Amino acid sequence: MSTKSNLRTNPDACPLASKCGGCQLQNMTYPRQLKWKQARAEILLKKYGKVDKIIGMENPLHYRNKVQAAFGRTRGGKVISGVYQSGTHRIVNVDSCMTEDETADRIIVDIREMLPKFKIWVYDEDRRTGWLRHVLVKRGFSSGEVMVVLVAADRKFPSKNKFIEKLLEKHPEITTVLLNINDRDTNLVLGEKEEILYGRGYITDTLCGLEFEISAKSFYQINPVQCEKLYNKAMEYASLDGDSKVIDAYCGIGTIGMVAAKTAGSVIGAELNKDAVRDAVSNAKRNGMKNIGFYCADAGEFMEAMADEGESADVVFTDPPRSGCSRKFINSLLRLSPGRIVYISCNPETLARDLGLITKGGYTVRRITPVDMFPFTNHVETVVLMSKVKE
Ligand code: SAH
């Protein structure tokens, strides 16, 4: 939808918008973006109930706590770093981005400028020559800790100590530096092997009063400011007490379940990705939580087994990927018949489909609130409360 002529309608639009393509709503001012998202949620969801006003950001700029830059060269040989032009493998040189953390952007630009002095060559995907492929920076917004990951084609890093010394001199806020080896012909940024060059090899951050350990590979919420608002809304809808039995389906690293476990009696999380489950277990331990457990399983199969065993739950949180909940999950959810269902969705289309199935199964939608997790993009996140019709 974002054509060049549309971009002219917003005087503050990013100058790289038409090349980069990462932000679909650059042609709109922020208040208009919120209206657009509200309207989109209403078109798809209003037949199920009133859509409350979208929760926007007070300051929608530089919200991303994780920034990834690809490194390459122009035809003239100049080193560039930034994002791939959407749909291509061409790098758009980025100095600063409206959605990215400013410290992270400055670190990446400084690394780019340091490369020639240290005779570090950037990787050439066609010729398979050179060394540095990407730089990944993660910053804990509440801890202030910063991780820099240099992703390179092999582990040879001749001027390693001097380079890190110089980088830390320019950016004393960096708390850890890693070297990740990606020697494969792949679109994935990170390779399997990594080496800690400085610090602990991970950072920590606090979200909703809980401490999380963030490694180079682990998943963590990209916009922690809005994430707290989303989870607070989800908890308000769940109205938990010390007796509540809770299921956190599609739980990722267990953030929603852990926030719930602060109030609830017990929580069980289910997640398919085994690395995420491992992080969930260690995060729960880190926070001294004893009333939460995690299963590595397909959410549908997990719910089916729970229903077969005649288990019950007071509240089920479900936060599926864009494809929504599976039929098996929804059928088993209806058999399990929890008092309340809190559905957190990153795709209003599959949400509308799933609400259709769940409301046919004896539930009614009580509340719907969209939350803007990704300003300037067309993503719409929504949290929905459902409970049984006869209650
Ligand atoms: N609730 C988490 C993450 C939600 S993202 C949070 O708030 O951080 C959706 C999650 O669903 C991802 O972690 C993904 O790995 C997981 N997932 C995808 N398909 C799944 C399935 N069939 N069963 C269980 N988990 C699945």
Average pLDDT reading: 94
SSE arrangement, N to C:
HHHEEEHEEHEEEEHEHEHEHEHEHEE
Tally of individual domains: 2
Per CATH, the class of the largest domain reads: Alpha Beta
Hetero groups: S-adenosyl-L-homocysteine
Helix content: 25-40%
Write structural notes for this entry.
This protein is an alpha/beta fold. Helices cover 30% and strands 25% of the residues. The strands form 3 sheets. The protein has a 7-stranded mixed beta sheet with strand order 3-2-1-4-5-6-7, with helices on one face. Helix 10 (327-336) links the parallel strand 13 (315-318) and strand 14. The longest helix has 16 residues, at 30-45. Mean pLDDT is 94; it is low at 1-5. Bound molecules: S-adenosyl-L-homocysteine. The site of S-adenosyl-L-homocysteine has 16 residues, from helix 7 and strand 11.
Show the helix and strand layout.
Elements: H1 4-7, H2 17-20, H3 30-45, E1 66-73, E2 79-84, E3 91-93, H4 102-114, E4 132-139, E5 146-152, H5 160-170, E6 174-181, E7 193-198, E8 203-207, E9 210-214, H6 224-238, E10 245-249, H7 255-261, E11 266-271, H8 274-286, E12 292-296, H9 299-308, E13 315-318, H10 327-336, E14 340-345, H11 348-360, E15 363-371, E16 381-388
Parallel strand pairs: 5-6, 10-11, 10-13, 11-12, 13-14
Antiparallel strand pairs: 1-2, 1-4, 2-3, 4-5, 6-7, 8-9, 14-16, 15-16
Bound molecules: S-adenosyl-L-homocysteine.
State the main characteristics.
391 residues, alpha/beta, Rossmann fold, OB fold (Dihydrolipoamide Acetyltransferase, E2P), 2 domains, 7-stranded mixed β-sheet, disordered N terminus
